[in-house]
Amino acid sequence: MVGRGQTFEVAENLEGRAVRGETVLAVRYLTKRFDRPRSLVDLLTGRPGRQVRAVDGVNVQIGRGRTLGLVGESGSGKTTLARCIVGLAERSSGDVTLLDLPLAPALNQRDPATLRRLQMVFQNPDEALNPYRTVGQTLTRTLSRLAGLGKAAAQQRAGQLLTAVKLDASYLDRLPGQLSGGEKQRVSIARAFASQPDLLLFDESVSALDVSVQAAILNLLNELQAEGQTAFLFISHDLAVVSYLADDVAVMYLGQVVEAGATAHIFQPPHHPYTAALLSAIPVLDPAVQRERIHLEGDTPGASAAAMPSGCRFHTRCPRYLGDLCVQQDPPWQDAGDGHWIRCHLTVEELRR
Question: Which of 50, 55, 201, 270 has the maximum number of C-beta atoms within 10 A of its C-beta?
Answer without folding.
Answer: 55
